[in-house]
Amino acid sequence: MNKPEFDITYSQLPAQLYAHTKPDPAPNAAYVWLNNSWAQSIGLDQAWLSSDDALGMFSGTEDVEGYAPLAMAYSGHQFGHFSAQLGDGRALLIGEIVGSDATRYDLHLKGSGSTVYSRRGDGKSTLRAALKEALFSEYMAAIGISATRTLAVFETGEMVMREEAHKGAVLLRAAKSLIRVGTFEFANIMKGEDIVKKLADFLIVREYTDIDIEANDRHQQLFTQIVTRQAELIAKWMSQGFIHGVMNSDNMALSGETIDFGPCAFMERFKPNQVFSSIDKNGRYAWNRQAEMAMWNLSKLAQSLLDLFDENQETAIQIAEEELNKFFPQFMTHFNQLIMHKLGLSIEGAQAEDMMNQTFAMLSAAKPDYTLFFRYLGDVLMGEDESLLVALCADEQPLQSWLSVWRGHIENEAITTTEIAQNMQQINPIYVPRFQLIERALEQAGNGELTAFNHLLKALQNPYIEAGEFADYLFIAADGDADEQTFCET
Ligand code: AMP
Ligand code: MG
User: Fold this and answer.
1) By CB atoms within 10 Å of each CB, which of 76, 79, 163, 422 scores lowest?
2) Could you give the dihedral angle defined by the CA atoms of residues 306, 307, 311 and 313, in that order, rounded to the nearest 10 degrees?
3) pLDDT tens digits, 398-422
């Protein structure tokens, strides 16, 4: 059995940035789910991961020499308001491992008990929330969106009070880095020790390895690359209908990974201002505001980095503005391209822009199921009847006129319609974590029954391949349903 090295290079940073804390001992820890296939793919020994030794470390019942978990400190703008002292209030960085893919991963527990950053929280997590994160993070991986991975979920044997009592659990997740916009906001209000610079250099060495650590303009380069990764990430989210739900600056990881799957959801019927989170009363983090909000967070990051851009404040601000101004054009380029690919089109420039406008106008009016719309469009090219598409829409008329424009473009493509359709099936998933499916899986899991969870997980891990066993995952939400649905697992 191979126990991985549990190094924590983060603890070489100034001590204000973290607090060593051990996980709360769980009275009766037991694995509910282990991500054996991903563990294997990064060379993590499954025998060790599933052993009592490992579970004992994660659940705080076994104290191993040299094991020094820590809670990371951060600040954050939450729904626009600054909180200076946030931090891992129920999470711990337990170690960094280097996978066989040569990537260094932060291993992070979530729900492992209170820390100095818990404020009034209990430091715990529900089994529902942990399993929801497992489902979503596996799906993100399957559809090629950068996100933290879930390695394991274990029950603690305790009950956790939310509106009612729930089974408690801890999630073990792996991230390329959990440094957030909020980590820099925190470093920026700490005095002395060049703390922002040390953190920025740490991030370069860890995650942005093509930047020369000796270069004078390395922090500007770092910011440029962070902006690029976020532009790509948000374009991918939106192209697949993902709504993060709590894009506070403490929930934006600078690795470009999606983190914290609390009230997140995939849009069902198309509604551009869709919000899922019950706590987002003003629609700040609606589907169609996510690029603007990412930019808002990036501007907070830029403020924290200003002193590193240039000694002269005005020059520094100018640099920050120039870099920030690159966000929207990059986002739009990616987003347009992704949507054109989803439509099976290779058009570019003004033609693509025009098609984008027509497509989103049609989607807003026809209100089809967003995921199935693109999927069935490919099926129609394969010879399926258009009634497939009609059945997805609340209003058929806008669809019909759009279809003739789309067919016109398809005819101009250089490859055959069969080839186009095949390409479309490879990028347009048929399965998506639908509200009702998740609800059913989590409800049953809360009662100790994991069949629905495992079945749904199987579909979400292979979302491009249609299979008879998942036929009942293909229903369409009634028009208006989404407005009543709220999703806030914690
Ligand atoms: P979130 O928006 O869920 O990522 O959390 C925002 C902040 O609240 C972070 O600092 C979390 O660590 C903290 N937090 C959330 N839930 C709890 C909890 N149950 N106990 C302690 N801290 C929490
Ligand atoms: Mg968070």
Assistant:
1) 163
2) 40
3) 999 999 999 999 999 999 999 999 9
In DSSP terms, 170 is beta-bridged to 154
Closest CA to 29 of 103, 111, 90, 132: 111
Q: What is the pLDDT of residues 69-85, one digit of tens each?
A: 999 999 999 999 999 99
- Name the H helices within 240-369: 290-309, 313-324, 327-342, 349-366
Sign, Cα dihedral of 106, 112, 115, 117: positive
CA 85 / ligand 1 centre spacing (Å):
11
What are the CA-CA distances from residue 420 to residues 114, 138, 301, 356, 423 (Å)? 52, 27, 41, 18, 5
CA distance 359 to 211: 39
Task: Give the pLDDT band of residue 307 (cuts 50, 70, 90).
Answer: very high
Residues identified as active-site: 250
Q: How many CA atoms lie within 13 A of 204 on its CB side?
A: 20
**69 neighbors 110 (Cβ within 8 angstroms):** no
Question: Cβ(72)–Cβ(178) under 8 Å?
Answer: yes
Query: What is the per-residue burial (b if ≥16 Cβ within 10 Å, else e) of 20-47?
Result: ebbbbebeebebbbbbeebbeebebeee
Q: Provide CB contacts within 8 A for 419, sequence distance 6+.
A: none
The overall pTM is greater than 0.85 = yes
Q: What is the DSSP string of 27-94?
A: TT-EEEEE-HHHHHHTT--HHHHTSHHHHHHHTTS---TT---EEEP--EEETTEEES----SSEEEE
- Average per-residue pLDDT in the chain? 96
Cα 252 to averaged position of ligand 2 atoms, centre (Å): 8
β-strand 104-110 against 165-175: which pairing, if any?
antiparallel
Q: What is the CA(251)–ligand 2 centre distance, in A?
A: 5
Using alpha carbons only, how large is the chain's radius of gyration in Å?
A: 23
Protein residue closest via CA to atom 11 of ligand 1: 89
Shortest-distance ligand to the CA of residue 280: 1
